[in-house]
Design brief:
- With 54 residues, the protein is an alpha+beta fold.
- It has a single domain, classed as Glutaredoxin, CATH 3.40.30.10.
- Helix content is 39%, strand content 17%.
- The chain contains 3 helices and 2 strands; from the N terminus they run H-E-E-H-H.
- Strands 1-2 form a two-stranded antiparallel sheet.
- A hairpin with a 2-residue loop joins strand 1 and strand 2.
- The chain is globular.
Length: 54
């Protein structure tokens, strides 16, 4: 996922590693995706499209 974000946007994502299966994606302070809320990892292409729409 980090590589796809870098390839698409030309930016290195800021990654905070942790425990407990948390996987959140924030763009400019806005929560775009939360695995905690959905119970599953996001589809990469769908997440990239959502990020591009911001």
């Amino acid at each position: 996922m980090a590589a796809k974000i870098k390839d698409t946007f030309g930016e290195d994502p800021f990654i905070i590693e942790g425990a407990g299966g948390i996987f959140d994606v924030n763009v400019d302070g806005k929560l775009v995706y939360s695995k905690h809320e959905t119970g599953e990892f996001p589809d990469e292409d769908a997440l990239i499209k959502e990020m591009q729409a911001l």
